[in-house]
Amino acid sequence: MAETTSAPTMKDVAREAGVALGTVSKVMNGIPVGESYRVRVEEAVAKLNYRVNSYAKGLKTNRTYTVAVLVPNLVSPFFAKLVNCLNRSLSARKHRMLLFATDYDPAQEQEYVILAEQQKVDGIICLSYNPALKVSESVPLVSIDRYFGAQIPCVSSDNYGGGRLAAEKLIENGCRNLAFMRIGSKLTNEPNKRKDGFISACEALNVPYTLKMVDDFTPYSAFEEFLREHLRGGKLDFDGIFCVTDALAYQTVRSLRSMGVRVPEDVQIIGFDGTQYFGDQDYFCSTIVQPLPEIAETCVDMILEKGLSKAPSLVCLPVMYAYGGTTKA
Amino acid sequence: MAETTSAPTMKDVAREAGVALGTVSKVMNGIPVGESYRVRVEEAVAKLNYRVNSYAKGLKTNRTYTVAVLVPNLVSPFFAKLVNCLNRSLSARKHRMLLFATDYDPAQEQEYVILAEQQKVDGIICLSYNPALKVSESVPLVSIDRYFGAQIPCVSSDNYGGGRLAAEKLIENGCRNLAFMRIGSKLTNEPNKRKDGFISACEALNVPYTLKMVDDFTPYSAFEEFLREHLRGGKLDFDGIFCVTDALAYQTVRSLRSMGVRVPEDVQIIGFDGTQYFGDQDYFCSTIVQPLPEIAETCVDMILEKGLSKAPSLVCLPVMYAYGGTTKA
DNA sequence: TTGTATGCGTTATCAT
DNA sequence: ATGATAACGCATACAA
C-alpha cells in the first residue's frame, strides 16, 4: 500500500475531504458537525486508513488513557490473574495497560515508577516490595497489599478476616491442634494480617496453635524440618495447618504425603489466594480465595474516577473459603 | 489535590539552569555539552524533579520505545510465562510493553491491533486466533504460533519435532500402542504440526496409533468418553498417550486415575508446553517444553533489530523433553 | 560549543 | 456550524 509514505495526518484527511482541520478533529472526537461534513470526513478517513496519533493527542490533552501496572512477575499464578483482572477492568474503561515486571527488585520498582511518570500515564497501580518507594505527587498511585501511609490508597483483600476464616473452618472441621506456616517479608504489609486473624480465631475458640514463620527466600526445607520435628511415631502433632499461600500449601501437602501423613484424613490444610489449575480449573488446595476481580476493579476505579486525594487510605475486600480437597468436605 | 503545579518542562529547567532550551535537550539525550553547562542542567533537573515528556518526544521523533503484546489471556500459565519472557526481553532493550488480552475474540484482536497502531507503537507481537487479522503495513508485526503468510514473520517452537519427540520417548519407554489427543482450532496454525510429527514418528517406528481430535470449546468429557470406549476390563487399549497440551494431559491423568488406570505404570502420558507448578516448580506432567525465553527473545529481536522485511517468514525453535512423573523414569 | 527557530499532529480558542 | 491559528513539549537544523 502506502509505499513507506508516512502515516496520514489530520491535515491529509482535511485535504482529502475538502474541509478544515478543525472539522476533522471534531468528527474524530464525536463533536457534532454538519451531517454532510461528517460523511465526507468519514469517507476520507476510511480511504486513507487514517488513525489519530495518540502521542500528539496526549501531548495536547495531557490525558494518555494509559495506566502503568507494576507487579513482581507474571509466572506466579496470583500475579498473573491479578494482571489479567486489571487488564479487563482497564480495557472496559477504554484504558491501556503498560506492564512492568519488577522481579521483587526495589531498584527496578523505583526505576519503573519513574519511567511510568515520564510516560505521563494517567495512573500507577503497583504491588510493591519497596518500602521506600518514592512517587511524585503528580501521578495518582494505588498500592495493592502494601500500606505506604495515608497519602497512598491501598487495596487488599481482607487478610485478617481470611486468617480468621481459615482457623474457623479448620476448627469447624474437627481440628483441635493447629499450626500456621508463613514465608514472607518482614516488612509490614497487609498479608501479614493473615496470621493475626488466625491467632484471634484460635484464641477465641480456645484451640492451641503453633507458629512457624520464616523470611522471604528461605528455602522450603525449613518447613520440612519443622514438620519433621513435629512428627512423632508417624503422627503429626497438628491436625490442621493454615499456610500463608497456596504455593506453600501445595508444597506442604507434598511433604506430608511423602512422610506418610494423609491429607486431609490425618491433617487438614488450608492455603490462601485461591489458585486454580490452569487459571480456571480446580483449586490447588482448600483455600481462602482473594477477590481478584473486585480488587482490580477497585484499583481502577480509584485511579480513574475518584479524586484519589480523599479516597480511603485502605480498602479491604471480602474473601471466601473454597474447598479444594485438602480439608474434610 | 496537591499543588496543581503542572509538571516542569524543559523550558523550566532551562530557566532554572540559566541555559538555552536546546542545551537541556542535549543533556537529556546524552549529547556532549560543556561540562559546566551539563552540571548546571543536571542540578536543575534534580531540583525540579524534571522528567522528559515521552509524548512530546514520541511525537517529535516518531519512536515510542513501546511494543504492543496481544495474547488471549494471562491466566493460562503458558501465556503468562510467554508474556513474562517478552516483558524481560523488551525491558532489557529499554522498551515498554503495552499489554492487551484478547480473550480469543477475533473482533477484539482486530480492535487492539488498531489501537496499537494509533498508539504508534514500534511493533506488535501477537498470538492471534483471528485468521483474517488486518494489519497496516506501517507497523512491524510478529506472530507467535500462527503463520499468516510470507509477509508476516512467525515465531514458534518446533511443534513438528516436539510431536516426534513425544512419540519417540513413549516408544523408547516401552509403549506399543499410542494415542494422540488434541483439542484445538481447525485453523491452520503451528501447533497442529504436533500431530504430524507424532504420526511421522509412529510410522517410522512402526507403532500403531489412534487419533482423537476435537475442536476448541468442546467439553473435556469428549475425551473422557473416548478413553472409556477404549477401556476393556479395567485395561486401556493404549499404553502411551500424547496430549496436545499440558492442560489436557493434566485432565487426562485425573480421568484415568479415577477410572482405576495407573499412570505411568499402565499408561504413560506426555503433554506439551512445559507448564510448571506456580510457574517455576515441578512440571505438571512429563512434557515437551517450549523454549519460551528464546521465543520471546526472537520476537523482540525481529521487531527491534531486523529490517523485518527480509526476516525469515517462519522461525522454529528447538523443544526438549522433560520428565514430570507421568512417564516411566 | 551554545542559542534560536521551526515543526511534529493534535486540540481549543477564536473570529467568521 | 465552520475555518484559521496558537499552543502542547520536545528535537534539530541552522545561525551565532
List strands and helices in order, with pairings.
The structure is a homodimer of 329-residue chains.
Chain A lengths: L9 H8 L3 H8 L6 H14 L5 H8 L4 E6 L5 H16 L3 E6 L4 H13 L4 E4 L14 E4 L9 E4 L1 H14 L5 E7 L8 H12 L4 E7 L5 H9 L1 E2 L2 E2 L3 E4 L2 H13 L9 E6 L13 E3 L2 H13 L9 E4 L2 E3 L7
Chain B binds a DNA duplex (16 and 16 nucleotides) through helix 2 and helix 4.
Structural overview:
The structure is a homodimer of 329-residue chains. Chain A is an alpha/beta fold and 329 residues long. Chain A folds into three domains: 10-52, lambda repressor-like DNA-binding domains (434 Repressor (Amino-terminal Domain)); 64-157 and 293-317, 3-Layer(aba) Sandwich (Rossmann fold); 159-291, Response regulator (Rossmann fold). Chain A is built from eleven helices and 14 strands. In chain A, strands 2-1-3-4-5-13 form a six-stranded parallel β-sheet, sandwiched between helices. The first copy, chain A, has a six-stranded mixed β-sheet with strand order 7-6-10-11-12-14, with helices on both faces. The longest helix of chain A has 16 residues, at 77-92. The N and C termini of chain A lie far apart (64 Å). The interface between A and B is large, with 54 and 53 residues. The structure holds a DNA duplex (16 and 16 nucleotides).
